Amino acid sequence: MELVPFSESDAAQLCAWIPNEKANFQWGGPTFSFPLTPEQICEHIAREEVKPYLLTHDKEPIGYIELFRVSDSEYRLCRVLVASPAHRGKGWGYRLVELALEQARMISKVYKVSLAVFAHNTAAIACYSSLGFVVLPELTKTRFFNGETWTLLRMERWL
């Protein structure tokens, strides 16, 4: 497995991985509307603070992650996705995050990585916790999706 830079030519593949409105919101929050389009993706990744990556296995794309510059010393992991449900539960999400942390370590002056995750995404929370992320209860927020209230946890770890 390796993490490779994501490019505009990968945008259609990423859109195909987001099958419905709920998955779109869980993955991208309020940043993207559904149906997700390559134009939305390309506009987003063109932002200077966004560093997007694909996770590949045997040269096949299987996941996506972003490092988002919050400040000179902090990056946030965003839009973490292991695309196929058949690939989940096999440690590939762990490897995806681990590789992204390696990328963050290579950025001069970065000493903290944070992320936001919905509280009902217990598998992701377990993955992040196993990699040293801790929940910051004072930064808990809520988001609203189709009449439901979703709790959004903030987690961080020091590099």
TrEMBL record:
- Keyword terms of this UniProt record: Acyltransferase, Transferase
Report the Gene3D superfamilies cross-referenced here: 3.40.630.30
The protein's matches in CDD domains, at most eight in alphabetical order, are given as: NAT_SF
User: What Enzyme Commission number(s) apply to this enzyme?
Assistant: 2.3.1.-
A GO molecular function annotation here is: acyltransferase activity
**Class in the EC hierarchy, top level:** transferase
> What sequence ranges are listed for the domain N-acetyltransferase?
1-159
Entry annotated with the keyword Acyltransferase: yes
Domain of life where this protein originates = Bacteria
Question: What name is this protein filed under?
Answer: GNAT family N-acetyltransferase
Q: Which organism is it from?
A: Enterovibrio gelatinilyticus
